[in-house]
């Protein structure tokens, strides 16, 4: 059975509507991972608004939704009050924490709807919103194995992997792949050796049909933004090569990145993959584009 | 002095927006330029609604190649957007060289279907 991945928001930090973001989009993170019997929503950035409208038009409508938040920085939760299903009883939404009784995500989603910030309070939403949790970091949801794993970001962050019938999609945004001592940096022409990357992430991403990963910077940009919690696209490419990933989607585009500069990042990553003989398809995550695996 | 005693409805901001949006929808052109493959060169203007790319003779964009399914892909024009979607074809569709299932098209995109390539133009 196929899995579909659709990008509804790909921009990091802040919504960036502009003529120069028209191709890749200006909405903040929201990715739909859809299996025949389950709809997973990764993050509730501003892109979730259009997803909500689209869900209302589907026939048959999904019986329930599973919302997985990576962390509660604004760009990952700001769209939630504008997500149409939160006002409907007919489409229950499960919001997941990381362990039993962990209602942090639920609490912070609702906190942004206090009257100081938003006119409708959380308790007045008409929808059915359920605080749930992943057991020990993983559980089966509608036949899909869902796992969470820690990422390297100020304040903490988690990624998610989805597996069913040999298909695997990994979502890992807001993550910094740090450089190891002695590595060539900045590798401005991308000709250096593959970088050494965390074993746990290599394991999580191993053989993924699609890896969606924070690649906010190129090496030159990353040089002045270390410890900000985001990665160079070259390091991300190296991880995808070493993990034998089939499709890499560069994600969490910088608000200053133009469509053209994102295209340049994609080209430099493709050249690097080619140099290392990798059979890896690389693209930049783009609003409104859907993949099927 | 402006004449404030004119009869008829007073234009509202929302009414002006509706007219502007309608004009934009009506004047927004969606075009495919074939840049490679059998039938090149040609230009097809897409009308509102759904158009088919396929091997079937009745397809608006008819491609006789065996690598193309009968109703290979659908192009849906709605307002100012044009969406392409794979219609369960055997060989899939490509957006700027990457195999996809569906996409909202943007000016300059290159679509690959079988041996043919098209450049999308909007505006």
Description:
The complex is a heterodimer of chains A (293) and B (123). Chain A is α/β, with parallel strands linked by helices. In chain A, 19% of the residues lie in helices and 25% in strands. Chain A has six helices and 14 strands. In chain A, the strands form two sheets. A seven-stranded mixed sheet of chain A has the order 6-5-4-3-2-1-14. In chain A, strands 7-8-9-10-11-12-13 form a seven-stranded mixed sheet, with helices on one face. In chain A, strand 9 (157-164) and strand 10 (167-172) form a beta hairpin. The longest helix of chain A is centred in the last third of the chain and has 17 residues, at 259-275. The radius of gyration of chain A is 18 Å and the shape is globular. Chain B is mainly beta. In chain B, 12% of the residues lie in helices and 42% in strands. In chain B, the strands form two sheets. Chain B has a six-stranded antiparallel sheet, with no helix packed on it. In chain B, strands 4-3-5-6-9 form a five-stranded mixed sheet, with no helix packed on it. In chain B, a hairpin with a 2-residue loop joins strand 7 (93-95) and strand 8. Chain B starts with 12 loop residues before the first helix and ends with a strand. The A-B interface holds A 4, 6, 22-23, 281, 283, 286-292 and B 83, 86, 95-96, 98-104, 106.
């Amino acid at each position: 059975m196929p899995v579909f991945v659709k990008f509804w928001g790909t921009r990091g930090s802040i919504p960036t509507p502009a003529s120069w973001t028209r191709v890749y989009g200006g909405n903040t993170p929201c990715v739909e991972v859809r299996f025949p019997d389950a709809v997973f929503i990764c993050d509730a950035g501003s892109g979730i608004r259009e997803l909500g409208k689209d869900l209302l038009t589907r026939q048959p409508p999904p019986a329930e939704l599973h919302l997985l938040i990576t962390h509660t920085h604004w760009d990952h939760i700001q769209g939630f009050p504008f997500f149409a299903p939160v006002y409907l009883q007919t489409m229950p939404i499960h919001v997941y924490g990381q362990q039993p009784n962990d209602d942090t995500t639920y609490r912070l989603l609702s906190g942004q709807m206090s009257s100081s910030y938003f006119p409708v309070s959380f308790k007045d939403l008409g929808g059915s919103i359920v605080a749930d949790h992943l057991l020990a970091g993983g559980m089966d949801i509608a036949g899909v194995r869902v796992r969470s794993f820690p990422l390297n970001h100020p304040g903490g962050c988690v990624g998610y992997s989805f597996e069913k019938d040999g298909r695997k999609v990994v979502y890992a945004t807001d993550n910094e792949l740090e450089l190891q001592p002695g590595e060539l940096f900045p590798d401005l022409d991308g000709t250096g050796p593959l970088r050494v990357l965390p074993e746990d992430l290599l394991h999580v991403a191993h053989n993924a049909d699609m890896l969606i990963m924070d690649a906010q910077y190129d090496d030159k940009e990353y040089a002045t933004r270390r410890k900000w919690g985001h990665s160079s696209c070259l390091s991300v490419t190296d991880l995808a090569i070493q993990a034998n990933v089939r499709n890499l989607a560069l994600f969490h585009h910088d608000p200053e990145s133009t469509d053209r500069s994102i295209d340049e990042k994609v080209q430099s990553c493709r050249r690097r993959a080619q140099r290392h003989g990798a059979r890896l398809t690389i693209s930049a995550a783009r609003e409104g584009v859907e993949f099927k695996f | 002095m402006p004449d404030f005693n004119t009869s008829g409805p007073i234009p509202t901001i929302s009414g002006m927006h509706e007219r502007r949006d309608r004009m934009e929808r009506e004047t927004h052109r969606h075009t495919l330029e074939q840049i490679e493959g059998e039938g090149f060169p040609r230009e097809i203007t897409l009308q509102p609604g759904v158009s088919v790319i396929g091997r079937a003779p009745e397809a608006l964009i008819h491609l006789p190649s065996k690598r193309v399914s009968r109703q290979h892909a659908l192009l849906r024009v709605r307002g100012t957007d044009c969406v392409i979607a794979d219609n369960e074809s055997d060989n899939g569709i490509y957006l700027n060289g990457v195999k996809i299932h569906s996409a909202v098209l943007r000016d300059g995109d290159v679509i690959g279907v079988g041996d043919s390539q098209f450049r999308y133009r909007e505006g």
